[in-house]
DNA sequence: AACATTCCCAACCGCCAAATC
DNA sequence: GGATTTGGCGGTTGGGAATGT
């Protein structure tokens, strides 16, 4: 079987995402969902591979992402699950709300593996700088101050009963499921395509309370002001506006 | 201060499985 | 049922920041 590349390699940007690209992706996905990662960059105005967009969204821009240092409890969970599951990072991350498989994997390779090795070789040697999470926690994490759990954004009222954090496993986040039977939340917002938002809320738990856009925007209106809606015919070439959710 | 080394993490790559045609 | 497309996953790497010399 011959696989076609996930994207046309020509003319596509690679490497670090710019704030502008982040805003474009965030604006598009939060409004229209991730209905097709391959097509998404084209309609979102991004010169990126769909896979790259997906990864960026899931590992960085997605709501409910918990950033910063791992707690002792989280590290114990990782170690325990790694013993039983091996390198199944997505499964491990699923047990750590707000953590992504990539982050868990990185933390394992950079910190926990060494600590684990060291403990197994010299059980009483506790001089490793990484051994004490409290000490480790004092190290400045590049992203630690970028996203923290914050209070709900004033313009948004969330009545959802779906308060439990969603697993970080990407396979539970990447597609919008529109099980409207479970959606109880309603958003008081001028944006009218409630189906999409409801679907997203169902998928994202406390999405509307999350701070990702509060770094840049005070309200959704501010963000839409910066990213005015494009023509729906352009954004919705397949006319799935009428569809329930994004299970395409 | 300048350079070298280490550490950390965001992002890419390639493979696989499920879904779709 | 086979071909193709798409999403998901784990391994790996490049580059910037931190630290050491």
Automatic annotation (TrEMBL):
Record-linked PANTHER family: MYB FAMILY TRANSCRIPTION FACTOR, MYB-RELATED TRANSCRIPTION FACTOR
Key words of the record: DNA-binding, Nucleus, Repeat, Transcription, Transcription regulation
Name of the protein described by the UniProt record: Transcription factor MYB51
GO-annotated cellular components: nucleus
Domain (Myb-like) ranges: 9-61, 62-112
InterPro entries from the UniProt entry: Homeodomain-like_sf, Myb_dom, Myb_TF_plants, SANT/Myb
TM segment ranges: none
Source organism of this protein record: Hibiscus syriacus
Locations listed in the record: Nucleus
């Amino acid at each position: 079987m011959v696989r076609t590349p996930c994207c046309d390699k020509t003319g596509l940007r690679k490497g670090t995402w710019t704030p502008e690209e982040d805003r474009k992706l965030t604006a598009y996905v939060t409004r229209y969902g991730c209905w097709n990662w391959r097509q998404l960059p084209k309609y979102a105005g991004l010169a990126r591979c769909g896979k790259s967009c997906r990864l960026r969204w899931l590992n960085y821009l997605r709501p409910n992402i918990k950033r910063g240092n791992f707690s002792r409890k989280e590290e114990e969970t990782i170690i325990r699950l790694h013993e039983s599951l091996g390198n199944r990072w997505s499964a491990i991350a699923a047990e750590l709300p707000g953590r992504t498989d990539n982050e868990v994997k990185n933390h394992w390779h950079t910190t926990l593996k060494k600590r684990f090795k060291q403990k197994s070789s010299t059980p009483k040697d506790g001089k490793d700088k990484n051994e004490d999470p409290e000490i480790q926690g004092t190290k400045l994490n590049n992203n630690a101050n970028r996203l923290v759990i914050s209070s709900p954004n004033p313009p948004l009222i969330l009545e959802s009963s779906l308060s439990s954090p969603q697993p970080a496993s990407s396979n539970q986040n990447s597609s919008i499921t529109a099980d409207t039977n479970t959606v109880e939340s309603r958003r008081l917002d001028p944006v009218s395509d409630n189906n999409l938002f409801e679907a997203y809320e169902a998928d994202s738990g406390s999405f509307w309370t999350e701070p990702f856009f509060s770094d840049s925007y005070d309200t959704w209106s501010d963000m839409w002001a910066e990213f005015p809606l494009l023509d729906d015919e352009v954004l919705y070439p397949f006319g799935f506006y009428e569809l329930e959710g994004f299970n395409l």
